[in-house]
Amino acid sequence: MALHARMSKMAAATAAIALTGVSLMCIPAAADGATARQTDAADAGVQAVTAPGTPRLPGGLSALSWMVADADTGNVLAAKSAHRKLAPASTLKTLFAVTVLPKFPGGTVRQVSSADLAGVGAGSSVVGIRQGRSYTVADLWRGVFLRSGNDAVHVLASMNGGWQTTAREMQQTARRLGARDTTVKSPDGYDAPGQVSSAYDLTIFARAGLANADFARYCATPSAQFPGAGGTTRIENTNRMLVGSHGLSRYPGIIGVKNGYTSKAGNTLIAAARRNGRTLLVTVMNPQSSQANGVYKEAGSLLDWGFDAEGKAQPVGTLHAVSASYHGGARPGPVAAEATGAAGRGGSAWRSALVLGAGGAGVAAIGLGALLTRWRQARGRGGAGRGTA
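The structure assignment produced for this chain is given below.
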C-alpha cells in the first residue's frame, strides 16, 4: 500500500509538471558568459540569450507577442510572450490548410451552392466566389492563400463535412502538433468568442504546412489568375512582404506564409524566408505602434536579426517533438525531416510522421509514461499477491 501511495503521488506530481511546466523544460540554462535577456518593462516577456558576438535584438518592436525560429532545426532563437493567447485573424488559415489541404486533389471541381457560402461573416475578406459557378480545389486554395478569402474557406469546409466538423478537426490537428494555446471556433480566423492562438502555435502550423509542397507553393505565390465573369481575373497576394507593395520592397528570400487582420486581432503575420539553405520563421501578433506596415517591418527586422545571428544565437527553446500524420501525396519539403523507423517506412511520405523539433513536451510525456508503466506493473504484482493470499 505504501508503495502504491508513493507511486501515485509521484505520478501525479510528474503529470502536473508535464502539463504546466513544459515551456520551462524547453528553455535551457544559459551557457558560460551568456545571460537570458529580460531587461526593462518594455522588454517584459522577452526571451533571448545574450552572448559575446550575438547581435542585439532590433529596437522598436511593439508587438504583443512574437517569435523567431529555425524551421529546419525547430530551435526557437528568441521570443516575446510566445504562449500568450491572442486572436489570430487569418493566420489561423495555416491550421485550416494543414488540416484540409491534403484531402482533396487540386483538380477536383466544386459547383458552389448557396449552402456553401452561408455564414460568411460581415466584412470578411473574400475572393469573389459566386453561387452556381464551378471552381477547382486549386482555385479555392489560391483564393484562401492569396486573397485570404473567407468565401473560399467556407466552400472547402463544406466539402470537408461542414463548418463545425472542420473546426473540430482543426482543433484535433492543433493538439497532435503540440499546439496547446489554440482554440478554434471559426476556421477562417474571423473573430469569434473564445478563439485564440499564440505566436508559438502559429509558428508550428506554418512549419508543418511548409512540409507540404502544395501549401508551400500556394503561400509563395504573389499573383494568379482566378475564375471571374467572362473569363479569369488577376488576383494578388495580400501579403505585402511577399509581393512588395504599399511602399514595401519584397523581402529578400521570402517564401510566404500568411498575414491577417481583424479589429480584435489587429495585424498578424507569419513570415518565412530562406537564405543560404537556412529557413527562418517569424510570427508577429498585434503590433501596438501606429507605424504604416508595422507588422511587416517588425517581422522583417526579426528575420534580419535571425539571419545575422546564424551560428551565434543560442536557442531559448524548441518546438515540441510531435508526430503529425497527413494524407496527401506530396513529399515533405526541406523544412521538416521525415521520421525514420516503422512510421517512416510505411505508406506514402504524407502518412509518415514528420519530426517537428525536439522539446520538453516529448521528454515530459516519455518520463510520465515510464513512471506510470512502472506504477502499473508494481500495482499488478501487488494485486496478484493479494489474490493468491
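Interim note for the steering committee: DSSP finds twelve helices and 14 strands in the chain. The CA atoms of residues 97 and 384 lie 51 Å apart.
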